[in-house]
Design brief:
GO molecular function, one term: protein kinase activator activity
Oligomer: single chain
Shape: globular
Helix content: 40-55%
Order of helices and strands: EHHEEEEEHHH
Organism: Alteromonas pelagimontana
CATH architecture: 3-Layer(aba) Sandwich
Protein name: PTS IIA-like nitrogen regulatory protein PtsN
Number of helices: 5
Distance between the termini: 13 Å
CATH superfamily: Mannitol-specific EII, Chain A
Structural class: alpha/beta
Strand content: 15-25%
Radius of gyration: 14 Å
CATH topology: Mannitol-specific EII, Chain A
């Protein structure tokens, strides 16, 4: 899976002011629903919260990969949000998170879901990419950093 096919300007937000884990998941759910008519905001939020209850998707280094499988989706949808300031997200390294790369995948795509997560995690393990995302002042800057 090519990460460039997942991201778009209309599903990217830069320097969102937020102060809690639940609120950032609400913001992500709103962005997903606004730009994908087949997705309901409440269903996205429920899916993301359910996944977080199984264990935090905060992978460390200020990065989280919230994700959920949803019925009715016909393709993978990515939402990228940075926050200002970083927020407590129960990440594995106990550090606050300021980069959120959320993935919503069709319910039946179990194997594809894991491959997509691995691709995104690999891209976000690149220090230069992460540095560029953190320096971003616009959504366009974030999209450029990820390409």
């Amino acid at each position: 899976m090519d990460i460039q096919t997942l991201i778009s300007m209309d599903r990217t937000e830069c320097a969102v002011h937020c102060n809690s884990k639940k609120r950032i998941l609400e913001i992500i759910s709103g962005i997903a629903a606004k730009n994908n008519p087949q997705v309901e905001e409440a269903a996205v939020l429920t899916g993301l919260l359910s996944r977080e209850r199984m264990g935090s998707t905060g992978i460390g280094n200020g990065i989280a990969l919230p994700h959920a499988r949803l019925p009715g989706l016909d393709r993978v949808v990515a939402i990228v949000v940075t926050t200002e300031p970083a927020i407590d997200f129960d990440a594995i390294d106990n550090k606050p998170v300021d980069i959120f790369f959320a993935l919503l995948v069709p319910e039946e795509q179990t194997e594809g879901h894991l491959q997509t997560l691995a691709t995104v995690a690999s891209k976000l393990s690149d220090r230069d990419t992460v540095k560029a995302i953190r320096k971003a002042t616009t959504s366009d800057d974030i999209v450029t950093a990820l390409k």
